[in-house]
Design a protein that fits this description.
heterotrimer, A mainly alpha, B alpha/beta, C mainly alpha, B: alpha/beta, eight-stranded mixed sheet, six-stranded mixed sheet, 20 helices, 21 strands, C: mainly alpha
Amino acid sequence: MMSSYLIKRFVSLFAVLLAMSLIVFCLQSLIPADPARAIAGPSAPVETVEAVRKELGLNDPLVVQYGRFLGQLLHGDLGTSVRTRQPVASDIAKYLPASLELACMAMIMGTAMALLLALLQNTTRGAGVLRMIMLAAGSTPIFLSALLLVYFVWFKLDLLPGSGRLSLRRFSGPTGFNVLDGLLVGKPEVSLDALQHLILPALALALPVAVAVGRSLNSSLHDVLKQTYIRTVRGKGLGEADIVVRHGLRNAASAPLAMIGLQIGLLFGNLLIVERVFSWPGLGLYVVQAFAVSDLPAVLGVSMVFGTFYILINMVIEILQSVADPRIRL
Amino acid sequence: MTEPVLSIRNLSVVLSRDGRSNRVLDGISFDAAHGEIIALVGESGSGKSTIGLALQGLLPRESQPQVSGSICLDGTEIVGASQKLLRGARRSLVRAVSQDPMSALDPTMTIARQMQESIDGPAPITDWLKRTGLHDPERIAASFPHLLSGGQRQRVLIAMAMMASPKLLIADEPTTALDVTIQAQILDLLRTLAREQQTAIVFVTHDLSVAASLADRVIVLYAGRIAEIGAIRNVIANPAHPYTAGLLSARFDFSSDRSRPLATLPIERGQRVDTGSACAYSWRCPLADGECRTVRPSLRSIDQHDGSTACHHPARTPLASRRDVAAPWPRPDILPTGVALELFNVSKSFASGTGPLWGKRQEKRVLQSVNLSIRRGECVALVGESGSGKSTILRIAAGLLAPSSGDVSRVDNVPPQVVFQDAVSALTPWLTIGEQIGERLRPLRLSAGERRERVGAALTMVGLDPALMTALPSELSGGQCQRAMVARAVVVPPKLLLCDEPISAMDVSLAATTLNLLGDLRRRLGMAMMFVTHDLAAARIIADRIAVLQNGELVEVGDVDAVIAAPQAAYTRRLIAAMPTLHLEPAHD
Amino acid sequence: MTDILESKPASTGRSGEWTALLRRIGVLEAIGMAGVLLITIIALLARWLTPFDPQLRVADAFLPPSATYLFGTDEIGRDLFSRAILGVQYTWLPGMAIIAFSLVLGTLVGLLAGALGGKIDMLVQRLIELFLVLPSTLIALAVVASLGPGLFNTMIAIAIFWWPWYARISRDEIRRLNSRPHVEAARVAGVRGPRLLLRYLLPGAIPSLLVAASLDVANVIMTMSLMSFLGLGQPAPAPELGAMTSRALDSLTVYWWLPILPAVLIFFMCLLSNLAGDGFRSVLRGA
């Protein structure tokens, strides 16, 4: 059952990636500016432009061009960045660890906060206040929460650093995850410093995740706790906390898991803003800088990479859902 | 008699919904001895389930329950007890088996782990599963609930409750969701376990015959009060309250007279009156007088039996059940030649599961070469248990499903109409009753006035006020919805009326009323009828012939009296034997 | 047969139900609904509500908020409050347009797929799934980056990824209703074709769609302001709230009101529409 599920899933993964590459390809050919003209220079004669055009294969039919584009993709060739003059793939390799570190931290914080919020709402009396807090947090645009964190926690109170990844100028480790690398190379003070830098941007990213997942978990937990089987468990004389932990959470897991998947997609978008506000040297900042100079290959390359991550993560989530509920068969 | 294990004194419960509070239980008092089985009988809304919840301290918190009086369970006071104490009581004193076994087990946990939770310390899980009559306890213990049938789940739930050796077991309609044959086995199991462990059982049911087959004593509830209490045999033999008498005369079994309409209880009409100073039943009671409407009767002992009743005139009660007997039905016009429906060699399969990536999907066969014909004006009852394929046959006959193979022929240009099981969900919530009935008149191209007239006539025919035409379904009671649905089916009388378990979710008196209505309409309008049911007694009342369906195959077709008196198929015999009746077993003290 | 004519239970009638429905809305939700109305009015009349010309220098640069200049002035001395009012218009009206367009398109596509079933339904389902599995914000960003920045392009990019949500809700609701007894009963009674679709199926799907759409208003506004923050909205002189924040980012520690106050306006728009959405849901779904 599992293997046939995986085959099915990979087939559809491939289809989705193909669709995404098609979109990216179409977008590339939508650019109003003529790339051949851009390369040859504004004053070059028509013949030169035509030669460049032929060299780039721009005269070939679109299908052929798309085939070539796919071939390049398969070889990990995402084109060359207009801004950095480097292959997009190597730029991405350089900036990816910083973004992944931030995203992972944000997801961990967000999920933990969501769990806490939902449990508090279902067990304590002050659910109304909690609901207002969640509503307010859920209505805050990501740049506002990021700005407020920078302004108060860093500028006014100076509790935590508000920009960059490290206080050190130069540091590089084997994995690119600074928190991990500090420990690996035996410099725990680096890890601590990296962690301090991580907290504010990760918190800004985690807030919308916590609210959305927390809400979804709360409402599905609320529904689950009204089910007959929970009454059976109550009839056995178990305590409320036991009931929620042992019977509630697992039964309520499906919808919030799906919400986590959805939020990861939104997180990639928010990453651009948070990295911009906190000057975090990751892919987000890279894309923001690319926007500024219309560096399309860079933007599309990063979209492709994030998109692949997103689809893979959602596959994992589907598997987790079936682990949580034995009635869902893969 | 020793000290009672359960002693309820003057229990009252007020529940609130949407800010309106409602007295659900009013002054309930009774005792239960060790090992005694007490049946709580009443219609929906009588408060019988609330007693069970109050006993466990599990009244829903969102309805802000206000409880007064006393529930003393093995020396522990439940009313007003702390949460901690209530948890302790639920753990060791009182357990419950619920109405719907399909949703009463946590779907994400194995049976073994759920049973383990039931008691502290190591639990002899497989032993208990075996004691409840499950054949391969190891496999069941390791399974998740969705792999078990309803009967198996109910056994698991009973094992789970009884393994904690509670002093009291609350069984809230534990068999209504199960097939008749399973139902009898589950009742047996409960009786045996209660006797072995000396557990008292409070058995909640709407069905007096189920109560009779199990209980020692019966409490009849009406509108949150005890109408009558006594030893079950005595109450059935000599009911002292007119309501009990009415329930008894409205219920039907194999001995009921099928040549005339069934006796029914008057249906509750109009708004609920504040009955603080009156007998709650006086608004339905055929014997009520001025005293009944002004003075609330208290529970007192009587001459009929050793129990007591809350009625001013228990001596007059026999008059209630001996009401004027209805005139016999006219003979139905069954045309010997015409055929209203013919199913020839009909089979049906459904795709099941997702199947592997490549290759054919698995198929599940639900009907196996069914041959059945219904003559014009004839009523055939299709009897079978859940999963037998009886609803599939109805849907094929209605044209809602196409058979996988075989032929269906209907000799009529008016397509057959259907009376659905759940009337409330068979009416579109945002359209008025009149609009929905009027849909069937559209092909006739009537003027608006004529159409209104026809709709009104149809409503009158099923016993509804024509003014209800402008009402939305949500403004009607369940019984009224059903009548409206019947009106839609007969506003242009079809040659064939298909009824899909129309009485399965009903209280006895409403069920009898519905059978009378359908029996009357089919004779008056000359309709043939297919009546799908799991209830052989109902089939016997309404039908001319019975067709018994087992696992998608017709195992027996014959005239009603012949099938009931001398069943040919083994399966039919089993169905008949499993029917609960009021014939009481010899006393077992 | 018996002659009992059962009549209407003495109910409160339909107007009574309406007041009961309205009573179900909480105080906060009512404030939200009133707020949404107010925002819409402000957005429609923005041009006449600005105290100063939003495009002209009216005072010294970097004045802090005061009674005259409610939000202070920006780097060239324009009144920030007047610009923010116009910014509300630039955010709210396009947001509403995106929701309305997606809702209508999604409902129609879902209705057709759900009602026709078979191959068409399969095809539409696959298409919807594809849209929903793609990382929409990212691709919307890429689309705008490729088409070139601008309000209209932003709207198109967002709407492309928004309608499939409604198509899915609409399609699923129609399928669900299609197998409900009351639709089956209507079919048995001889109702067919468009009449079945419009009278028996669509009205059942509309509440869920409206609830989803009303709860989505805040999401659309967030997405739009995100794009505007990244410089993908209307180019420079246009007073978009996200862009105002982003352009003043570096002056946060000196002139805090420049980046913060426009963002606070977005916050209020989202908060009010979330509250209104909750109120809407309790009206349509029954708490």
